[in-house]
Design brief:
- The chain has helices spanning 17-27, 43-47, 63-73, 83-90, 94-100, 115-125, 151-161, 219-230, 268-282; strands at 3-8, 32-37, 50-53, 79-80, 108-111, 129-134, 144-147, 165-169, 179-185, 188-196, 211-215, 238-245, 250-256.
- Helix 3 (63-73) runs antiparallel to helix 4 and helix 6 crosses helix 7 (151-161).
- It has a five-stranded antiparallel beta sheet. The chain has a four-stranded parallel beta sheet with strand order 2-1-3-4. A four-stranded antiparallel beta sheet has the order 5-8-6-7, with helices on one face.
- A hairpin with a 4-residue loop joins strand 12 (238-245) and strand 13.
- The protein is an alpha+beta fold and 283 residues long.
- This is ATP-grasp domain-containing protein.
- It comes from Hyphococcus luteus.
Length: 283
């Protein structure tokens, strides 16, 4: 029986609920699935027939170590997503590259963790209010919403970033329309989930009180998500496009290619499709 190892993290070494659905779908196809933290003992990865990066949700704390770990995996077969693709996706500056290819990104600039630099970026973008976030982050860690005239808020945001990052226009519709995650197996769309923040917040993650529900996005939105994924070079096994979907247009938030929550608890059939896509690659 072939062994597939799902990479997790030392902080949360067990499989997440959604990944247990995927593990069950792989088990139904004759695979064994085990979890092992990327920043723990490496024996499981060495012995695995395939490695799938899943809940490595602490990598942003030690991005250099994680990049080195991915580099060590690059020489072996059957690592998903491809390590080079994941390394390119680690820093949120990839969003600026996608904007250069025509992705509908909110006005965004790279910035150093300095209040004057944040203020200068807001001036350059013509923003009275902005989102500030570090280039390495997960579940909205290090994120702040700032106003240009609030010197104390700018200083606090710079300190919270603790590293270079991005200044980005706030998309206020996220508080009402929410953020929709378009999930792909390979480059085939499988399902979508809309996440909405709690009142008074813009963070949609469950960790911050957000709620999610299965979504039925219009055909144009699915087509636009396909277009955005096509801007990414390489061959992902899985991908998630996060966007705010407005009336006939979309604002890209993230292209998640490393360790996205794939929401298989909302769509077990999608887990079966990803399991099938993995089986095709292994064969």
């Amino acid at each position: 029986m072939q062994m597939i190892v799902f990479a997790t993290c030392a902080a949360e070494p067990a499989l997440q609920e959604s990944d247990r659905v995927l593990a069950a779908a792989l088990g139904a196809r004759g695979f064994a699935v085990a979890a092992a933290p990327w920043n723990g003992p490496q024996d499981a990865f060495v012995a695995a027939d395939a490695v799938v990066i899943r809940s490595t949700w602490d990598y942003q704390k030690t991005p250099d170590a994680f990049a080195d770990w991915l580099a060590r995996l690059e020489g072996r077969p059957n690592v998903f997503n491809p390590p080079a693709m994941m390394r390119a996706n680690m820093s949120k500056r990839y969003l600026l590259d996608l904007a250069g290819k025509g992705a509908p990104l909110p006005p965004t600039m790279a910035v150093e963790p300095d209040p004057d630099a944040i203020a200068a970026a807001m001036d350059a973008l013509g923003l009275a209010e902005a989102v500030v976030k570090p280039e390495f982050g997960a579940t909205a860690s290090g994120l702040s919403v700032v106003r240009r005239e609030d010197a104390a808020g700018l200083a606090a945001a710079a300190a919270k970033m603790a590293m270079p990052g991005l200044v980005q226009a706030l998309v206020p519709e996220i508080t009402t329309a929410g953020e929709t995650s378009f999930i792909f197996a390979g480059r085939a769309f499988t399902h979508a989930v809309t996440k909405r923040p709690k009142s008074g917040d813009i963070r949609c993650q469950a960790d911050h009180g957000g709620a999610a529900a299965l979504a039925d996005p219009p055909d144009w939105a699915v087509a636009e998500a396909h277009r955005l994924l096509a801007m990414v070079s390489g061959d992902p096994l899985y991908a998630r496009i996060d966007a705010v979907t407005l009336d006939g247009e979309m604002r890209l938030m993230e292209v998640e290619l490393i360790e996205p929550e794939l929401f298989f608890t909302y769509s077990p059939d999608a887990a079966a499709r990803l399991a099938g896509a993995l089986l095709e690659r292994l064969n």
